[in-house]
């Protein structure tokens, strides 16, 4: 809480925010995390196919040739 609005943190997740309560399991802890992280966050949601999958497919095609 000392960092609130004074320092930055970068948090990445492959789990959508709407599933955090389910994954965390404890509603009190999930609420605390969401209150501190989600509500004051700048969110960037990346869409599209995984770059790893694209490169793996490309390598597979090149190996087959």
Describe the structure.
With 65 residues, the chain is mainly α. It has one domain (17-64). The protein has 3 helices and no strands. The protein has helices spanning 20-24, 27-38, 51-64. The termini are far apart.
The total beta strand count reads 0
Proportion of strand residues: under 5%
Average pLDDT across residues? 82
Return the string of H and E elements. HHH
Taken from the alpha-carbon principal axes, the silhouette is elongated
Helix content: 40-55%
Number of helices: 3
Number of domains: 1
Structural class per helix/strand content?
mainly alpha
- First and last CA, distance: 57 Å
Radius of gyration over C-alpha positions, nearest whole angstrom:
18 Å
Instruction: List unreliable stretches of 5+ residues.
Output: none
Question: What oligomerization state is this entry in?
Answer: single chain
Largest sheet: none
